[in-house]
């Protein structure tokens, strides 16, 4: 069976900052349409660098970047095509926000695409609603709290309606409500067909939200189903990641013979609650 062509793909990608050691080498990373991918790895492992290579902000020192299967040309036309497909929300919102007000900032990208005013207004409204910041539309960006700036920066990317939305630690600094709102917004985007790649240090969030994981460790990049990779103790140790809560609970239940080897593991407290309820109502656990 042949898999469909990834939307964007790094092939044997290598990169080093000027006069620095290699940050990434020989990295293969395919982003297939419609996926939710969590990128994990310790501080300084190269997550931000990888996301910048993927979105064209940095250029591979070796290897290549493909868009819909064709090598990206780093000229004006090639980069414009890449940037209308792939949007990166950077780690620090202060590196992204520059307009005087939230509304102006979010409208900047769509306006730059040359869209009619009506369409720009619609997209801005939609993006502000998605991130729950409609009330902040006229507020000066420099007076916002960190979490509000973070949401405004994400809204700016969402307003571009990219096929691939890449976010560098989007939940860092958001309060629990803000995180839930963001996950809901991402769910709606995914339902609309948007592919999402997110760098995060939160293994629980990754297990709950992603279907694929990409883990950077000194051995390189490993990609695969999130449940499988985040249950691999050797990989977690190499990448200095904690085992997710759900994986630990599943192990405990299995060790006590309460959960079958092939049964789905709980990924959230709500999953566990549903499992307990089902088991109590209709016990069918392996003996
Ligand atoms: N502009 C730069 N110039 C030189 N070296 C850099 C630059 N940006 C990052 N590096 C180095 O590249 C390596 C990878 O950094 P990167 O920011 O990609 O890591 P990261 O996984 O995103 O880390 P974090 O979890 O802290 O965000 C680090 O060793 C870092 O010091
Ligand atoms: Mg980073």
Automatic annotation (TrEMBL):
Statement: the UniProt record of this protein carries the keyword Acetylation: no
Entry coiled-coil feature ranges: none
Protein name listed in UniProt: ABC transporter ATP-binding protein
Principal location listed in the UniProt entry: membrane
Classification of source organism: Bacteria, Bacillati, Actinomycetota, Actinomycetes, Kitasatosporales
Species, as recorded: Streptomyces tanashiensis
Residue ranges occupied by any ABC transporter domain in the UniProt entry: 8-243
Family designation: Belongs to the ABC transporter superfamily.
Topology in membrane: Peripheral membrane protein
Domain of life where this protein originates: Bacteria
């Amino acid at each position: 069976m042949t898999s469909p062509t990834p939307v964007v793909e790094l092939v044997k990608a290598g990169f080093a900052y000027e006069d620095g050691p290699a940050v990434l080498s020989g990295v293969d990373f395919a982003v297939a349409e419609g996926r939710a991918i969590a990128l994990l790895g310790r501080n300084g492992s190269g997550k931000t660098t990888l996301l910048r290579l993927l979105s064209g902000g940095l250029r591979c020192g070796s290897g290549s970047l493909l868009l819909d299967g064709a090598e990206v040309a780093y000229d004006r036309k090639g980069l414009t095509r890449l940037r209308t497909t792939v949007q990166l929300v950077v780690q620090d919102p202060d590196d992204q926000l520059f307009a005087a007000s939230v509304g102006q900032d979010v409208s900047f990208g769509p306006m730059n695409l040359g869209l009619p005013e009506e369409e720009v207004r619609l997209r801005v409204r939609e993006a502000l609603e998605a991130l729950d910041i409609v009330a902040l539309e006229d507020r000066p960006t420099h007076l916002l709290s960190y979490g509000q700036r973070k949401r405004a920066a994400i809204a700016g990317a969402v307003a571009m309606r990219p096929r691939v939305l890449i976010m560098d630690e989007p939940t860092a600094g958001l309060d629990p409500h803000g995180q839930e709102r963001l996950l809901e917004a991402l769910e709606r985007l995914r339902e609309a067909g948007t592919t999402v790649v997110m760098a995060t240090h939160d293994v629980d969030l990754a297990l709950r939200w992603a279907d694929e994981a990409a883990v950077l460790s000194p051995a390189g990049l490993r990609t695969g189903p999130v449940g499988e990779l985040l249950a691999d103790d050797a990989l977690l140790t190499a990448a200095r990641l904690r085992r997710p809560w759900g994986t630990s609970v599943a192990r405990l239940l299995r060790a006590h013979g309460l959960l079958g080897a092939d049964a789905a593991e709980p990924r959230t407290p709500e999953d566990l609650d549903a499992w307990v309820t089902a088991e109590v109502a209709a016990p069918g656990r392996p003996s």
